[in-house]
Amino acid sequence: MQVNIITMQLFDLGKVVATHGALDALQEAQVDPMTLVARHANGDWGDLGDEDKQSNQAALEDDTRIFSAYILPDGVKIWVITEWDRSYTTLLLPSEY
């Protein structure tokens, strides 16, 4: 049985892609990338300050970029960014931005 982990998707993700660096870091930390994508799509913005969280809430209304940041168990940070036009959602390392 397959379980859909995106329970309350707030916006379109578009095509979901990831950089090699992000995929390597996720594999090393044994974290399923779709777990982070689901958190992002459900409005759990991760390790962001209040101002960035408020920007994401506004982006749901004004169709601007949506940004989340998650710290993996080994301390590596992964960003998840959905483009303003909702065409792509990308998982990447901050150094790859």
Q: How many domain modules? A: 1
The best one-word shape is globular
Strand residue percentage: 15-25%
Extended strand count: 4
Q: Quaternary state, please?
A: single chain
Query: Averaging pLDDT over every residue, what do you get?
Result: 93
- Poorly predicted ranges: none
Total helical elements = 3
**Structural class designation:** alpha+beta
Strand order of the largest sheet: 1-4-3-2
Order of helices and strands: EHHHEEE
Distance between the termini: 37 Å
Which radius of gyration do the C-alpha atoms yield? 13 Å
Major sheet: size, sense and barrel closure? 4 strands, mixed
* Helix fraction by DSSP (H/I, runs of at least 4): 25-40%
Structural account:
The structure is a single chain. This protein has three helices and four strands; from the N terminus they run E-H-H-H-E-E-E. It has 97 residues and is α+β, with helices and mostly antiparallel strands. The chain has one domain (15-96). A four-stranded mixed β-sheet has the order 1-4-3-2.
Quick summary:
This protein has 97 residues and is α+β, with helices and mostly antiparallel strands.
Question: Keywords, please?
Answer:
97 residues; globular; alpha+beta; 22% strand; 3 helices
Strand and helix map with partners:
Blueprint lengths: L14 E4 L1 H10 L3 H9 L8 H13 L3 E6 L5 E6 L5 E5 L5
Parallel strand pairs: 1-4
Antiparallel strand pairs: 2-3, 3-4
